[in-house]
Specification:
Blueprint (H helix, E strand, L loop, with lengths): L2 H10 L4 H10 L1 E5 L4 E3 L7 E15 L5 E7 L6 H8 L7 E14 H10 L1 H27 L2 H16 L3 E3 L2 H8 L3 H13 L3 E4 L2 E4 L1
Antiparallel strand pairs: 1-5, 2-5, 3-4, 3-5, 6-8, 7-8
Helix pairs in contact: 4-5, 7-8
């Protein structure tokens, strides 16, 4: 069974056969290595991504270069912000970076707009994404406003652990700091305290959840 067929099953599980065939006929599957930038802020949207395997993180950067993680895009999901910007012929307000090696189906924006009128289930897919991402963004705002750094950091580590299906994470303190929108020193201080409490184990560029 080849990879293309496995990807086809993923799409067929979301949409009916007519839409899924149109999706594959119109789009193209592309592989990305971890760390690849799929979309930069202020870019015009040319393609809408549907993740087939791996994951993508969506981040927001302020004028001073500080970043914060908004959400992850996982298999059978897309980026609602890309869809909205693309359909409205607007520029991207976010950046999208591959978190783990990914295969992504890239759909032309014109087709994504056309399917909104033609396929009710495509609209349902978009609305479901919108609701999910809205709830995730509310969680981000709540965490920044009300939660302490240690709670936010542990939540992020658990997110990554679930994403990679491993308790051993290859991640630097600076990467965590960027995703939380705080300083590397603050992350290092909290991680050391977590290690003292036997919540994690630290080694070079690796964090193990206990």
């Amino acid at each position: 069974m080849n990879v293309y067929f496995l990807d086809m099953v993923t799409i067929d599980n979301i949409f009916n056969s007519r839409l899924s065939k149109d999706i594959y006929a119109s789009g193209r599957v592309k592989s990305f290595n971890a760390g690849s930038v799929i979309l930069n802020m202020n870019d015009y949207i040319k393609s809408i991504p549907i993740v087939l395997s791996g994951s993508i993180k969506v981040i927001k950067t302020d004028p001073e270069g500080r970043e914060i993680l908004l959400y992850y895009i996982k298999p059978a999901e897309s980026c609602i912000m890309s869809i909205l910007a693309g359909v409205n012929e607007d520029t991207s307000k976010i950046s999208a970076i591959v978190e783990e090696d990914a295969e992504v189906l890239l759909i032309p924006v014109a087709k994504a707009s056309e399917w909104i009128r033609e396929f009710p289930e495509w609209s349902d897919f978009i609305f479901a994404l919108y609701q999910r991402r809205f709830e995730e963004l509310l969680d981000v705002v709540s965490a920044v406003a009300f939660q302490k750094v240690d709670v936010r950091l542990m939540h992020l580590l658990k997110q990554k652990s679930a994403l990679f299906q491993s308790k051993i994470l290859s991640v630097t303190h600076q990467q965590l700091a960027n995703e939380l929108g705080i300083t590397r020193e603050a992350v290092s201080r909290v991680l050391k305290q977590m290690e003292k409490e036997n919540l994690i184990s630290l080694s070079r560029n690796k964090i193990s959840l206990m």
